[in-house]
Amino acid sequence: MPPRRLVLIRHAQAAAGPVDAERPLTERGARQAAAIGSWLAQSGLAPDRVLLSPARRAVQTWEQAGAALGPGLHPIVDERIWDNTVEALLTAVRETPEDVRTLAVVGHNPSVGELARVLDDGRGDRAARGDLDAGFPAGGVAVFLLATPLAGVQPGAATLSDVTVPAG
């Protein structure tokens, strides 16, 4: 049985705007988002379930990324991702059904970057950890392997396997 994986994605580059939740992706951000989808597909990381922030830039990031993974996956917009706290993200992740093997969460900093650091058990890829320590930029992706169901994910209980910012 393949391992369970948690894929944390920070939305791609967004434009400025008067209403934060309505900020769209820039042209570069749209290319970044498409590159995220291509990277996920090439890496064999197509998720079984996707949780999205309701912010326009997060929704657009997944629309572009998901296009590379084919039809059939309907993301779940979850207000807790927009709450932008580690606790809210963990609560949403823990409600994942047991049959989900790969969960993707598309959200925002600081919570996505903080969650990545909190989950890391320190046994993963050293280069990936160095990349994570350098920050979690727009369009960044962190992949964790889990020995337990997502419902039981705890701080320090996930092994970081990859960190990337796919070029767009």
UniProtKB/TrEMBL annotation:
<protein>
    <submittedName>
        <fullName>Histidine phosphatase family protein</fullName>
    </submittedName>
</protein>
<dbReference type="InterPro" id="IPR013078">
    <property type="entry name" value="His_Pase_superF_clade-1"/>
</dbReference>
<dbReference type="Pfam" id="PF00300">
    <property type="entry name" value="His_Phos_1"/>
</dbReference>
<keyword id="KW-0378">Hydrolase</keyword>
<dbReference type="InterPro" id="IPR029033">
    <property type="entry name" value="His_PPase_superfam"/>
</dbReference>
<dbReference type="InterPro" id="IPR051021">
    <property type="entry name" value="Mito_Ser/Thr_phosphatase"/>
</dbReference>
